[in-house]
Amino acid sequence: MKLKQPNAQGKRAGRSGRLVQARDRIREERLFIRRAVVSFIFVALGLSALVGRLVYLQVFNHQYFTTLSENNRVSLQPLPPTRGLIYDRNGVLLAENRPSHRLEIVPEQVDDIDATLQRLSTYITISESDLRRFRRLVGRSSPYVGTPLRFGLSDAEVARLAVNLHRMPGVNIKADLSRRYPLEAVAGHILGYVGRIDERELKTIDTSQYSGTTHIGKTGIEKTYEDILHGEVGYQQVETNAQGRVLRVLSKTPPVPGKNLYLTIDIEFQRAAELALGDYTGAIVALDPRNGDVLALVSMPNYDPNPFVNGIDYASYKALNTSPDRPLFNRALYGAYPPGSTIKPMMVLAGLEAKVFDRRKSVYCPGYFKLPNHDRRFRDWRRGGHGTVSLSKAIVESCDVYFYQLALDMGIDRMNKHLSEFGFGQRTGIDLYGEKSGVLPSQEWKRKVHKQPWYAGETIIAGIGQGYMLATPLQLAHA
Description:
alpha+beta; 3-stranded antiparallel sheet; disordered N terminus; single chain
């Protein structure tokens, strides 16, 4: 049996089929390679973008995003100390801390501060001064901490805000303690007041010790003993969620409260002295003669320090500041006045110490005194004169002529030397800011201050506490 031989045409067809299959495979390989290259390019570009972004985040902005991440997760919150209380010598409370509420805004958590402020103004009253202070504080404070907008919120204001806080992210109501002076104007000049920390004070205080603290002593005892009353700030490290809500406290350093102060003032004595002056303008100082303790220090008219704590309104401050009676002026410390006849007992003691006259010698008072070789008459307060005046009579009747003669015998420089031993011309050292030293004149003082020589007529009127001589009520009490 013979096998059938394939013809030539069949052979050609077979070879052609194999060629077509080979070409299809090559085409597919090329297409695959092109697709692979394109895919590789896209992957490479994507990886390059990711690497570039990673470098941007980790190298160029590492510190910024690290801080941002930590602030979103962990934050360090200051814990302000409780301010120390102030009592009188008998334990009567003069300055206390009362629960209060303030409104704060965390700028980082607010998308539109202006819109938020506008919305808040529909719930509570926000003054222009509140807004100015808030914007000033925002500009110099961390955006991650609360910036106070309003202090001393009323219960009604707290209630209105509380039901709307969910609409205003970053707006918080904080409970704190507000300074209060329960006796109001009584001893107001002594106690002074605390007030909001201003820009000038921020440049001088240790800001680390005032983190989270909004108030500082401004005048009086509150200012003098600020370091003792303030205490030390504490801190707590807390974990927060994306909305800034505290999840847990990681660590805590509690604050150290300020120390309490006990003054030498007897507040009942102080109150009685203020009532004694009544509507008169003046000052009263009472000291314990045994040790020099100040029992009362009165300046009238006085003022209530409470409105100053959270910011007195402009109209009220203007009324106090422009009043002709000057209620903000502490006359006992700042008022320098001619001491007048109150200086006469000290003049006698100074004259005895200087040994310039015989205490047994009498002086004739015709109602005036004339300097040798001068015609001008220096009048006595009693026109008809006191007649023959002994030392004791001169003090009892306050004879001006007697002290004219004594001053002339001493001379102004010797008067300056001996009267300075009574504290005239110098501060007493009381622990209140702003005390004046008064003026105890001398020839050198006048040449230095007025560029003029000293005259004998100025000496004799200094002998009765007039002329250039000035003293504060506190100096006179100490003398």
